[in-house]
Amino acid sequence: MGSKESEKSYEVTIQDQNDAQIRSVVLQVFRNWSSRNPDANDPLYLADDRTVLFDVTPMKDVGWDHQKRRLHGVFREFEKFDMEPTGDLEIHHLGDVGWATMTWKSKILLKNGSMMSREGRGTFVLKGAFEMACGPRPHFRSLTTMT
Q1: What is the mean pLDDT of residues 50-77?
Q2: HSE, side-chain direction, 13 A CA sphere, residue 74
Q3: Rounded distance between C-alpha atoms, residue 128 and residue 145, angstroms
């Protein structure tokens, strides 16, 4: 009898930790983008040249290295870039796969002094081991990025 209750409590604890870990990774991705340094997201993106990534422009990149090289050029035009989720971040998981959906907004100050703002939606798919033995941060890989 006590065993069932403690199992349920353990599941809830793991669920809460998984949600917190996924939320932490998603927020780190946004902080990294705001730094205008695509290399900062290297540990978080799947380094596979066949992975399809969706972005604002162009709509589709194939391979993290390709997207990263393109973004280095884009970010050279930015004086400042702030990007953040708008507060509707939802987290889901099934087994060792988690995904997060959100809308986001950004403010861009171009080097020529022009200001731009954008809004969009994003889906991150994260795969990693959720075992407690992994430590505070499982090894997630974002398979899909913002569109």
Answers
A1: 84
A2: 18
A3: 17
